[in-house]
Write a structure and sequence with these properties.
Helix content: 40-55%
Number of strands: 3
Distance between the termini: 26 Å
Shape: elongated
Largest sheet: 3 strands, antiparallel
Low-confidence stretches: 167-174
Order of helices and strands: HHHHHEEHHE
Number of helices: 7
Structural class: mainly alpha
Mean pLDDT: 85
Strand content: 5-15%
Radius of gyration: 20 Å
Length: 174
C-alpha cells in the first residue's frame, strides 16, 4: 500500500521517510570527516582526500571541483582561503567522491554473501494523529538481502531512486 504513504505526515504523524533514514545510516557507516569544512583542519582533510592521487583529482573534477592546481596548492599551503561558494563545492565533491569510494565496501558488508543485514522498522509517532486516523503499525524486523539499488542510489545521492528502493518507514540498522 505505498499509495497510502504518499502524503507523509498528512494527519500529523511524525518521522522520516525510509530512504532518508537509510541515507543517514549509510552516511554514518561511511565515516566522513567530522571537522566542518569551515575549520582549517576539516578543509585540509577534504583537500588531501580529493587531491592525493591523480585518480582522486579526476574524481573531484568530475564531482564538480573545478579549480586550478595553482589554487589548490595555495589553499593547501594556507596562502589563500576558499570562498564560501568554493567551500560548498569542496564539501559536495568530498561527499560525492567519498560515497562513491565507500559504496563497494558497504555493499559487501550489507549483503554479507547473500545473508543480508537485519533492519529494524519503527512505526511513525502517531501521538498527534486523531483517533479515527490511527493505524496499527507495529515495530518489526526484516532481513534485507539485496542492497545493490539502495547503496547505488545513496552513492549517487538520488532521492528519487532511493525512495523507490526502500519503503517509507523509519529504519535503524542493527
Amino acid at each position: 500500500m505505498p499509495e497510502r504513504n504518499n502524503d507523509f505526515g498528512k494527519f500529523g504523524a511524525h518521522g522520516i521517510k525510509g530512504h532518508e533514514a537509510v541515507a543517514r545510516q549509510l552516511d554514518a557507516l561511511a565515516g566522513f570527516v567530522a571537522t566542518p569544512v569551515t575549520a582549517r583542519r576539516g578543509l585540509l582533510a577534504r583537500l588531501h582526500y580529493l587531491t592525493r592521487t591523480e585518480r582522486a583529482r579526476a574524481a573531484a573534477r568530475e564531482a564538480g571541483l573545478t579549480v586550478t592546481d595553482r589554487t589548490l596548492k595555495a589553499w593547501l599551503d594556507g596562502r589563500r582561503s576558499p570562498s564560501r561558494k568554493n567551500l560548498q563545492n569542496i564539501e559536495s565533491a568530498y561527499l560525492r567522491v567519498r560515497r562513491h569510494n565507500v559504496a563497494r565496501y558497504l555493499l559487501g558488508r550489507l549483503n554479507r554473501e547473500g545473508r543480508g543485514t537485519r533492519v529494524e522498522f519503527h512505526p511513525l509517532n502517531q501521538s498527534q494523529v486523531t483517533r479515527p486516523q490511527h493505524r496499527v503499525v507495529e515495530f518489526r524486523t526484516l532481513n534485507v538481502r539485496h542492497w545493490d539499488r539502495i547503496v547505488e542510489a545513496w552513492a549517487a545521492a538520488d532521492d528519487q531512486e532511493g525512495g523507490t528502493a526502500f519503503p517509507h518507514r523509519r529504519i535503524r540498522n542493527t
